[in-house]
Amino acid sequence: HLRFRASVLVADGAVTLTTVSAPSTAKGRAYLAVVRRVHPAVIRAMLRRAHRRAAQQGRIGLGVS
Description:
It is a single chain. By secondary structure, the chain is α+β, with helices and mostly antiparallel strands. Helix content is 48%, strand content 31%. It has 1 helix and 2 strands. Strand 1 (2-11) and strand 2 (14-23) form a beta hairpin.
């Protein structure tokens, strides 16, 4: 019901996540109508959580050069 692609770019200590979606059916259009409104907030929260967990495990530096 939905085709999507996701891309993650990590450069200069920043992470950029890009998603593109295209509905294939009416069900996909209905799903996107709901998700489109909350998707940015959900993705930001997921990236913040991933960053916090990586920092706690010592996988990334928190300082800025």
